Amino acid sequence: MVMFAIVLMGISMTVVSKQWTVVMKRDKEAELLFRGNRIKAAIEAYAADYQVRKASRPNVYPLKLEQLTEKPKRYLPVVYKDPITGQDFELIKVGAEIRGVKSRSKDKPLDMVHFKNADTYDQIAFQVQAAAAQPSVPGQGLKCPPTCPQANPRSPQGQ
């Protein structure tokens, strides 16, 4: 009877352990989503503030994540670590500027709703998109309304 109880306890502990592993992995995935999106939003805010702060800042995007936590304006409370690996995120750079982060883990994600088309965590990128450039060729920007003299050269105003 005692041996049966010990075997039963061992089996139940194995089942609980597997369930606990899944719960912890889902928790880490939720934290990855939160931290990655926070870093992406911070980089976007940093880049958006460039026009205001370009006199004191030579670059549009940060060169290191620590710049997002510095005063006078803090975009992040701390530099987050990758919750999957416990290490620093891998940086996505264009030149020297940081445009995003991604995990270094080669594990397969459980959440296929938020991490669509990703076979491993390192394929999930939290990256800002470059701002679209304003048209620089005359006549390709804002159009003049039909009542405008330049739009209708035959009108009495356009002659």
Structural features:
159 residues, alpha+beta, three-stranded antiparallel beta sheet, 2 helices, 3 strands
Kindly state the percentage of residues in helix. 25-40%
Question: What integer is the average pLDDT?
Answer: 80
Q: How large a portion of the residues is in β-strands, by DSSP E?
A: 5-15%
Strand line-up in the sheet with most strands:
1-2-3
- The Cα radius of gyration reads 26 Å
Structural class, from secondary structure content?
alpha+beta
What are the segments in which pLDDT stays under 50 over at least 5 consecutive residues?
A: 132-153, 155-159
Largest beta sheet, briefly?
3 strands, antiparallel
Discrete helix count: 2
| Strands, total number | 3
Brief overview, please?
With about 160 residues, this protein is α+β, with helices and mostly antiparallel strands. Helix content is about 30%, strand content about 10%.
Q: Your description of this structure?
A:
This protein has about 160 residues and is α+β, with helices and mostly antiparallel strands. It contains 2 helices and 3 strands.
List the helices and strands and how they pair.
Elements: H1 2-48, H2 50-53, E1 90-94, E2 97-102, E3 125-127
Antiparallel strand pairs: 1-2, 2-3
